[in-house]
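Go through the following before class.
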Amino acid sequence: MLWATAGVVALGFLIALEIAARRYGLPGPITTQVREVIVAPKSGFLLYAGMALTMVVLTRRQRFIAVAVALGIDAVLLVVRWAAGADLTAGHPFGNGALWVILGCAVIAVTRRTGPERVLLLKGVGLGLLLVAGRKTGDTWLLITSKTRPMVLDQYLAVADHALGNPSWLVGRIVTATGPAGARALDFVYAQLAVAAVVIALYQLRNVAAERRFPRHHLVRTFLVIGLLGPGIYMIFPVVGPVFAYGPGAYGTGGLHWAVANLWPDLPPPISAPHEMPFDGITPRNCMPSLHTAWATAIFIHSRRGPRVLRYAGTFWLIATLTATLGFGYHYGVDLVAGVVFTLTIEAALRSLERGWDRAGIQLVAYGVAVFAALLLSYRCLPMEMAERPWLFGPLLVLTMVSVIYGYVRTTGQWETKAVPARQPAPEHQLVSG
């Protein structure tokens, strides 16, 4: 019943976004996903990542067949496109086959499986499609933010960021000094965040086929909730980012640009009274909070229970993502602080839901919500005070974030300690014979 309800809610949400996108003359998430059944997909790696999630419910032989079928379909479609003279650079040359396999598993579940086996296979299909649909939904959300929020609050964050020492400007100069090689490496990490998440998720779901059930909590759940709630905050606090509001990213066609000045990353903006400013109807308002930071933080958290190589990978991905978000001018430092608090609060809520709500879980989630709301209010109402007293507000921002981190680590540590059964004393006859 829970999975059916979640499916109905997700479908209704996708239909609503489809209608909203159509109002602006653009295809919505459902249309773009249906097109990728035939046309060259824009998210080839992501489609195969979704297929990998679906395959966690399959046996080893079935996985081999699924991969072979997907690659075969992609090869045939590539030859057909080439023979038809289609533009092979319009999208990824592969990915359709993976989507076909996911949909084929859904057909097999309905027509050839019954009982628990059908439910398990449909859950695998739903997991794979949710990952792909999440990407399409995010693209539509970003479109809606650019169309419905003509005014942005970048000046407020730029002023408040003085309390942290304008980290985007500092890291931007460092990344620029590394040259094209450093920028390309960071761009790859930034763009393939979802693939990194799938690697961690596959480790967490590695026993699904053998145990015939999913674990109650895993990374994909956290990723999807972050992606669902984050764009709602974008609508409340629309921000485009330093490279657009203060840098060359704002220059568009026709000689028009909307930047306050071309300052990023060479010269931090001066401290002056901030106000809302108009911006174009194209650039997404997707800075507050930084969802890339939120997702990278979730990857780091869930990699802690993996082997050493996954723990190292999770740490690397978090550091590289934070560097990219700042170094490319996509986010202010205060965005990252909010993103960490945002993730820990969601993770705490999901873990509480998994194990049952208790006093510690309720307090942690309430504290995280209160801190996140306080951060948004301070960025909006106290930016000048923050900029003029960095010796006070800079450490205060960091300590506030650290307090949520400490609360999460402490509370989850207590949960894990309680989950370990107490060691039973040896029977009396064993004690005597010993």
